[in-house]
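Q: Sequence in, structure out?
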Amino acid sequence: MGKSEKVVVTCAITGLLTDPNKFNVPVTPEQMADATRQAFDAGATIVHAHFRSQQEGAGAFPTWDIAPVGDILAAMREKVPQIIINMSTGVMGNDISGPIACLEAFKPHMAACNAGSLNYLKIRRDGVWAWPPILFDNPVEKVKSFLDVMTVNNVIPEFECFDIGIVRSVGMFKANGMFKGDPHLSFVMGVDSGMPARADLLPILKDELPENAHWQVIATGAGREKNWELHRKCVELGGNVRTGLEDTFYLPNGEKAKDNGQLVEALVKIVQETGREVASPSEARDILGIDE
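A: Exactly. Output:
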């Protein structure tokens, strides 16, 4: 089977704000390392990581403090030396010093790069905002600041795209020389004010990809059936795949997943059912252009 038929599997092992007191998401270095091992053993070669405060009672909140982030990454790398680390970078506002410091200190293989702005909205049935309307601001200047640091530190950007215009913008970033190498894009689907979680949109989005792009779907808030439908269509169209407790708590049969490993196992089964194969760690590095 050729390289183009191999599917790179990512596991997003914990979310940004998911409460560990209510959901089985990893927080501590040991938990993050164990979750990485579960995902890897099930077939994932990339782990997408957010980092949580290690202060007692503060596990639901993100942190960019160098010490706890370093402890978490060290534990993950020690537990699974072959894993490809994809670090979160998303922050609202102009102060990006936290994620920049972590990129420079730890030089992950990959890092998320939110590629455009979004009015982050959710409305209740009675018409009241579920939370005060938020602007997730990612102007070009902010994107470029991240990309400049990623380029210097040999970190591959993974562009997170909330609508089709943002997908098209990544091609402009490439043409402008803002990053090097093949583009890596994630179609973020299911956010109420972003792209809907519809499998029939994937061929259109694929047609708008920049040349030589790698791509996957991030199905967040899509609902169980649509979540797994999106992944199956993604594989059929030649994309890579991502799952994990950041994205969903439910297996295709409706049961609640006990851990990240179960979600990856379910996704690997879908990959195999479509006639494609999961990339090995060395194959994933070759596909993504990771040197080490």
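The radius of gyration is 18 Å.
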